[in-house]
Amino acid sequence: MRYGLVTDIHSNLAALEATLKSIEQKGAIDGLLCMGDIIGYGPQPNEVIQRLKEYPLFSIIGNHDMAVIGQLELADFNHDAIDANVWTRVQLEPENLEWLESLSPKAVFDDKVTLAHGSPLEPVWEYLTTPHAATRNFNAFETQLCLVGHTHLPRLFFLRDNEVNRIFGFTTQKSDMYIPEDSQTIELGENRAIINPGSVGQPRDGNPKAAYAIYDDEEMTVTFYRVPYDIIATQELMHQAHLPLSLSIRLDYGR
Ligand code: ZN
């Protein structure tokens, strides 16, 4: 089976459309796995949810989605995010609100894959940005792989084999972090890994192109991709909706 990995779409339909087109150009997929933050920030929350649901979809919920539907305190977010979340709450169709309410921030997909928005240990809030943080998270899920989002940074963490301290005899766990390049395929083999495909709708690694990945559970590979999209189309809709200017400007820079 082949799956498209998408996360942190943040109501950016133009970015999602470019991503889906790019995925389809690379061959048939059996479904989409989505690690949350589907809405918040961008101008087209309902359209993004409807588009995702056209595919066989397994999705969890992210902190922005939770804030929009009232499951988190808005006060825990910065001003621009609060403005965007309040706007999004007004726009959201009841059926889409109900669908988001049915999701949780961490879920097991199959015998190989768990999904968690931030991290398996703290699915709502933790930002997995270092090997040290990843290491302690490998004990918080039971499958071989965990797919995450939340940082908006494409990353892959591998758990190393236990290392035995030669002097004292205790074992230590460590993990390695990789920053994948565009179109890079990584062989997973039987290694335990935490995988973040990067953000579709608001990349933050200095590259404004939408980020996604394709996971193949027979080959046991994950391939990371970047795809350009019509940033101006999203920005114009954000201006029309009076969403905060800083949120549309950052799309130009991928920050
Ligand atoms: Zn996000």
Can you give me a brief rundown of this structure?
This protein has 8 helices and 14 strands.
Chain-wise SSE layout:
Layout: E1 2-6, H1 13-25, E2 31-34, H2 45-52, E3 57-59, H3 63-68, H4 79-91, H5 94-101, E4 106-108, E5 113-116, H6 131-137, E6 145-147, E7 155-159, E8 163-164, E9 171-172, E10 175-178, E11 185-187, E12 193-196, E13 210-216, E14 221-227, H7 231-240, H8 245-253
Parallel strand pairs: 1-2, 2-3, 5-6, 6-12
Antiparallel strand pairs: 1-13, 4-5, 7-10, 7-12, 8-9, 11-14, 13-14
Helix pairs in contact: 7-8
The structure holds zinc ion (ZN).
CATH topology name, in short, is: Purple Acid Phosphatase, chain A, domain 2
Report the mean per-residue pLDDT as an integer. Answer: 96
CATH architecture: 4-Layer Sandwich
Q: Which stretches are low in confidence, meaning pLDDT under 50 for 5 or more residues running?
A: none
Ligand catalogue: zinc ion
**Secondary-structure element string:** EHEHEHHHEEHEEEEEEEEEHH
Describe the structure.
The chain has 255 residues and is an alpha/beta fold. The chain has helices spanning 13-25, 45-52, 63-68, 79-91, 94-101, 131-137, 231-240, 245-253, and strands spanning 2-6, 31-34, 57-59, 106-108, 113-116, 145-147, 155-159, 163-164, 171-172, 175-178, 185-187, 193-196, 210-216, 221-227. Strands 3-2-1-13-14-11 form a six-stranded mixed beta sheet. Strands 4-5-6-12-7-10 form a six-stranded mixed beta sheet, covered by helices on one side. Helix 7 (231-240) packs antiparallel against helix 8. The chain is globular, with a radius of gyration of 18 Å. It starts with a strand and ends with a helix. The model has no long low-confidence stretch (mean pLDDT 96). The site of zinc ion has 7 residues, from loops.
